[in-house]
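Hey, I'm writing a tutorial for new members on how sequence and structure tokens pair up, and I'd like a real worked example in the thread rather than a made-up one. If someone can provide the structure for the chain below, I'll link this post from the tutorial.
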Amino acid sequence: MKIGEVVSRLLLIAGTHRVMLEPNFVNVAISLAVMDGLGRQLHDDFNIFRHATPFLTKAALRYFTFYLSRDFLTLYIIILEIFYI
């Protein structure tokens, strides 16, 4: 999957439907698209999701720790272990 294509479609659809996106979200999405494109230029089978998953998982856990109960967080960790390990 090419993240650049996904980001382009997302921004196009949001613009078509006049949906306001958070500027920080747009910056991160465009940055991911640029990194993915650069990685693919250097190595044809580069997959940014494979490389970014551990970092994104840790960030998501830190973020959601404040909002999720302890039991639900444990279930979330188990689900992550099943799908990503």
